[in-house]
Design brief:
By secondary structure, the chain is an alpha/beta fold. It has ten helices and ten strands. Helix 6 runs parallel beside helix 7, helix 8 crosses helix 9 and helix 9 packs parallel to helix 10.
Length: 272
């Protein structure tokens, strides 16, 4: 069966009337923005120390990120000065939402605006997997004047070329994408194609599995100006007493200041 990623190149080549720009003309500066996917407050602090320009604050790392708790959002806004774009996602799984979930999303957006977040990361699908453009437009309108990033709902859509146009139509500032693959490093051709199709109409931000050891290859292929990474390391339980019979604690994932710094340096070194 044809997958979204395997079919992407044919479909974007079939699109007519798209003005393409050489990647060398898109990237005019060797400065990049690193967005750190942070799952706790310490990661927010480490991200800023490492030179990140933006934080995507998330809860629930085992579900790929869900809306953070209000208290965490309030404190994050107090302790970091860089841009804060929490994910708005009421649960894990697919991005098709019920009416009740949509209203909860609305309330979360209102709350983020009230505490001076700079933007949100969000997305929605129809039952056929395509982007729900009308609902995404509502999200962007509710968020204004905050900015909106289209999250991984993009990569789950059946036609990435069409979803790129839909994202622009909906008013998103950027798209977080791994090119429809498990990791960005596995989709260099697709990400490069997206960069050329997007030109200056929307920001393409490669992410997923992006680390200091592979970001140079991604940057060299795409010449992207923004990159997304959790930059995370596992943190051992520091408590002196631990019950080995209890296994439902989960794990603590902290962004590493040094990893953030290395990702930024390696990406900038790879730009033309």
């Amino acid at each position: 069966m044809e997958t979204p990623a395997s079919s992407f190149k044919l479909r974007v080549n079939d699109l007519e009337g798209r003005k393409r720009f050489p990647i060398s003309l898109i990237a005019m500066s060797k400065q990049v923005t690193i967005e750190v996917c942070a799952f706790n407050l310490e990661s927010c602090i480490n991200a800023e120390k490492g030179g990140a320009g933006r934080i995507e604050l998330c809860g629930n790392p085992t579900e790929g990120g869900t809306t953070p708790a209000p208290g965490v959002l309030i404190q994050a806004r107090k302790i970091v000065s860089i841009k804060l774009h929490p994910i708005i996602r009421p649960r894990g799984g697919y991005y098709f939402y019920s009416a009740d979930e949509i209203e909860s999303i609305h309330q979360d957006i209102i709350f983020c605006k009230s505490i001076a977040c700079d933007g949100i990361s969000i997305g929605a699908q129809k039952m056929d997997g395509s982007l729900d453009v009308d609902l995404c437009k509502r999200f962007v309108e509710w968020a204004y004047p905050m900015k909106a990033t289209l999250n991984k709902a993009f990569d789950l859509s059946p036609n990435l070329g069409q979803s790129l146009e839909d994202a622009i139509d909906a008013g998103f500032e950027r798209i977080l994408t791994s090119g429809g693959k498990r990791a960005a490093i596995n989709a260099l051709d697709i990400l490069s194609e997206l960069m050329m199709l997007a030109a200056d109409r929307i920001i393409i931000m490669p992410g997923c599995g992006l680390r200091s050891h592979n970001v140079a290859a991604i940057a060299e292929a795409t010449q992207a100006k923004e990159y997304h990474s959790a930059a995370r390391v596992d943190i051992a339980n520091p408590l002196t007493h631990q019950n080995p019979m209890v296994h439902d604690l989960g794990s603590v994932f902290n962004a590493s200041t040094e990893e953030v710094r290395s990702i930024k340096a390696n990406a900038e070194a790879a730009l033309f």
